[in-house]
């Protein structure tokens, strides 16, 4: 029974890490679409969303099967619970990549407008947060997990700057409202990716320490 259980846990870990790698790739493509204002790349991201959805369901079903068959306790139970939550956050990051792609499709129709917001720093931090949260999961690295949580403030700060600058542009150029709203919404989607990466880091800490640290606890 123990050998079968260990194999099931190992298979589950491989599945969640495979999903993480796929989501990381989708976020990278979404960031590239932001940089290039590339509607063709945006379409590719949107059409490939089903793959993440299917894998998310597979991971959830695997977790439920293990819970039903083996009734894990202690650290093994924490691992299953953490995977269920991380699985959901990864799927949501995939959704945000699609949302970004949809904004790019609209923005690409208005590239003659002079106002632009530079999302380079925000995308760099967001991508790093996702990568490091997954690294923390692979290595059970609590220091890296805490580092991810502290990075979220930087993303929030940039999102605030985007709101202020784009809001002023809306006052100055009300005829370009559709373009500006979509430009602003990119910051919202990136901020949510960062939030989900933070959630993953918090689940890693829960997995290691057995402590729930949401809502700023222990920071």
Structure description:
With 219 residues, this protein is mainly alpha-helical. The protein has a single domain, classed as Phosphate transport system protein phou homolog 2, domain 2 (Methane Monooxygenase Hydroxylase, Chain G, domain 1). The protein has seven helices and no strands. The longest helix has 35 residues. The chain is elongated, with a radius of gyration of 19 Å. The N and C termini lie far apart (40 Å).
Write a concise synopsis of the structure shown.
The chain is mostly helical and 219 residues long. It is built from seven helices and no strands. It has a single domain, classed as Phosphate transport system protein phou homolog 2, domain 2 (Methane Monooxygenase Hydroxylase, Chain G, domain 1, Up-down Bundle), CATH 1.20.58.220.
**Strand elements, count:** 0
Structural class: mainly alpha
Taken together, the total number of domains comes to 1
How far apart are the first and last residues' alpha carbons, in Å? Answer: 40 Å
What oligomerization state is this entry in? single chain
Report the biggest beta sheet as strand number plus sense, adding barrel if it closes: none
Low confidence ranges: none
- What is the CATH level 1 assignment? Mainly Alpha
Examine the secondary-structure arrangement and name the CATH architecture. Up-down Bundle
Radius of gyration: 19 Å
Shape: elongated
CATH topology label: Methane Monooxygenase Hydroxylase, Chain G, domain 1
Strand content: under 5%
Q: Summarize the helix and strand pattern as letters.
A: HHHHHHH
Mean pLDDT over the residues: 93
């Amino acid at each position: 029974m123990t050998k079968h259980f260990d194999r099931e846990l190992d298979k589950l870990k491989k599945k969640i890490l495979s999903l993480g790698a796929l989501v990381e790739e989708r976020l990278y493509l979404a960031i590239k679409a932001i940089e290039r204002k590339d509607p063709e790349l945006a379409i590719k991201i949107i059409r490939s969303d089903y793959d993440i959805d299917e894998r998310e369901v597979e991971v959830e079903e695997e977790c439920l099967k293990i819970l039903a068959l083996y009734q894990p306790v202690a650290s093994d139970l924490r691992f299953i619970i953490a995977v269920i939550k991380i699985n959901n956050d990864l799927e949501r990051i995939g959704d945000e990549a699609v949302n970004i792609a949809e904004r790019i499709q609209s923005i690409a129709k208005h590239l003659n407008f002079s106002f632009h917001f530079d999302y380079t720093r925000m995308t760099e931090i967001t991508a790093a947060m996702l990568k490091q949260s997954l690294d923390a999961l692979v290595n059970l690295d609590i220091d890296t997990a805490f580092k991810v949580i502290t990075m979220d403030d930087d993303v929030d700060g940039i999102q605030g700057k985007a709101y202020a600058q784009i809001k002023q542009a809306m006052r100055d150029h009300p005829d370009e409202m559709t373009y500006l709203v979509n430009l602003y919404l990119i910051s919202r989607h990136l901020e949510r990716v960062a939030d989900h990466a933070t959630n993953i880091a918090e689940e890693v800490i829960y997995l290691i320490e057995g402590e729930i640290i949401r809502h700023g606890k222990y920071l």
